[in-house]
Amino acid sequence: MKYSQRPATVAVIAQWRVLVFMVIGVCHLLQVAGWAQVDGVVGVTNGPANTNTSYILNVNDLVEVKVYKEDDLLTKTRVDQDGTISLPPLIRTVTVSGRTIAEAREVIRQLYEKDYLVSANVLVTLLESSRTNKAAKPKLKFTVHGEVKKPGIIEIPEGEKVDLVNAIALAGDFTPLANKRKVTVKRREGDALKVYELDVQSMLRDVKAKPFEVRPGDLIEVRQTLF
Predict the structure, then answer these.
(1) How many whole angstroms from its chain centre is CA 131?
(2) What are the b/e assignments for 131-156, b being 16+ CB within 10 Å?
(3) pTM of the full predicted structure?
(4) Fewer CB within 10 Å, N or C, the chain?
């Protein structure tokens, strides 16, 4: 005797329909919760502006720049008063103000691929818009020159203090030729230029040593050891 397979087929179709509706529901919940996918990279967003690649960047916007599989290139920074951001250690400055997020991402990608990376998958995310953050402060910076691995202009993390030992670390640490006993800090105080000669090697060895706080505008010079 032959039995009809129709009931079993209907049951399977019904199960698949339930599964499809469940997947659609989960995707909707993820979208509501703030997950978005940009150029194949999934991340948590913090408002509509983050996923809007046509948003035009402005001074004081807080942005995050990621390069896929290059964790050391992760940067969170505000757009400076001149419309630029710094992307250490490879790119000093790039103009993003007046550009859309998509345009800024493309410019940054081209800069990385020009001299440093074979293929750069760049993601630019708007973390905070200056249009809703009127009290945003300009970035505070200092400069490190000489025998460090990543010399240049360094931004002081917002709301934090940086001492001299941390400043050297932010500059990639000393090179093997650095004179750690004679590090010069030049600081403008009013109309006067003050120069401090500091022994960083002693600071590193003595945990009780008083830290030397780095201030915005300081110029730190690390000279070469004389043999």
Answers:
(1) 21
(2) eeeeebeebeebbbebbbeebbebbb
(3) 0.45
(4) N
| CATH architecture of residue range(s) 43-128 | 2-Layer Sandwich (3.30)
Unique residue bearing structure tokens 């001074």: 59
**Would you say 224 and 146 are in contact if contact means Cβ atoms under 8 Å apart?**
yes
pLDDT value for 157: 77
Helices (H), 92-194: 101-115, 164-170
As annotated, the residues of the chain forming the CATH 3.10.560.10 domain(s) are 141-224
**Cα 141–145–147 angle (5° rounding)?**
135
* pLDDT of amino acid 16: 60
Outline which parts of the chain fall under CATH 3.30.1950.10: 43-128
Over residues 78-108, the pLDDT tens digits come to 999 899 998 877 777 899 999 999 999 999 9
- Pairing mode of beta strands 75-78, 62-67: antiparallel
- Please answer whether residues 157 and 193 qualify as being in contact, where contact means their C-beta atoms are separated by less than 8 angstroms: no
CB-based contacts of 160, cutoff 8 Å, min separation 6: none
Q: How far is CA 49 from the centre of its chain?
A: 18
Alpha-carbon distances, residue 192 vs 36, 56, 183, 188, 195 (angstroms): 52, 41, 20, 6, 10
- CATH numeric code, 141-224: 3.10.560.10
